[in-house]
Amino acid sequence: MQEVAAGPLARLVQELLRFPGIGPKTAQRLAYFIIRDPEASSLAEAILEAKERIIFCSQCQNLTDVDPCPLCADPRRDRSLICVVEDPLDVLAIERSGRYRGLYHVLHGVLSPMDGIGPEDLKMEQLLARLRGGSVKEVIIATNPSLEGEATAMYLARLLRPLGIRITRPARGLPMGADIQYADEVTLARAIEGRQEL
Question: What is the domain range of residue 154?
Answer without folding.
Answer: 77-168
